[in-house]
Structures are given as C-alpha cells and as structure tokens.
C-alpha cells in the first residue's frame, strides 16, 4: 500500500497539491495529512479525482515518526520535521518506508511524500 502524505498552507489549492504529488512520481492508495487538515477543499478535490480516501493522522502519531527532511516551520506547528513525510509513514503503517522524501510544489504552498507499507 502506498500512502501520499501532504503538508500544505491553508490557502493551498488542488493545483498546488497535485503538483507536489506529481513530483513524487507514484500513484497513491490513500492520502494522509495532519488531523484538522483533512477538511481542506483542495485536498478533498484531489482525493476525489484520484478515487482514494483521506486519512487524518493525529498529532501524537505525526510526532512519533522519524522524518528524512526537516522544516523549522513544520516542527513549530506540528512537532515534526515534515508533515508530509510523517503523515505518509503513519498512514502506511508500522515498518513503513519512505519511497519519496518531501517534494515541494513550485508555488511552495504544498509538500508531498510517499511511503510504502502494509497499512495502519
């Protein structure tokens, strides 16, 4: 199972999210993000386009993930070096591995990372 994890600014639209996903180069089985961000209209549209569910990851589970990259803003807001990487790893389940580290959309509004695992 492949999980696409997303971190994004509140004003990110579907195009920003789609661009970050495209930079990862794989088709996900589900989309994951920090709990509270799953209601984003842009994210919901992207999930609908892809025909995949959205998985909201609780803050404690995000904080427990080891991330490959580090963003000071992400750490300050969510307690993790990368919301995208942490969400992907958490959603892909125990023992998951990153198959694409955090990729940033050209407009810098969204990030995406991919992880592979057996699921939550």
TrEMBL record:
It comes from the Bacteria. One of its GO terms (molecular function) is hydrolase activity. InterPro entries: CobE/GbiG_C (IPR002750), CobE/GbiG_C_sf (IPR036518). One of its GO terms (biological process) is cobalamin biosynthetic process. Keywords: Hydrolase. Pfam families: CbiG_C. The keyword Cytoplasm does not apply. Residues 2-115 form the CobE/GbiG C-terminal domain. This is Cobalt-precorrin 5A hydrolase. It comes from Roseovarius nanhaiticus. The lineage of its organism: Bacteria, Pseudomonadati, Pseudomonadota, Alphaproteobacteria, Rhodobacterales.
């Amino acid at each position: 199972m492949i999980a696409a994890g997303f971190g994004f600014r509140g004003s990110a639209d579907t195009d920003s999210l789609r661009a970050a996903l495209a930079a990862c180069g794989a088709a996900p089985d589900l989309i994951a993000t920090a709990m509270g961000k799953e209601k984003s209209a842009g994210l919901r549209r992207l999930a609908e386009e892809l025909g995949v569910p959205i998985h909201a990851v609780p803050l404690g589970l995000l904080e427990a993930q080891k991330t490959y990259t580090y963003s000071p803003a992400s750490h300050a807001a969510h307690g993790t070096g990368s919301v995208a990487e942490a969400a992907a790893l958490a959603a892909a389940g125990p023992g998951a591995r990153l198959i694409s580290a955090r990729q940033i959309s050209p407009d810098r509004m969204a990030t995406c990372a991919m992880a592979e695992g057996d699921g939550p």
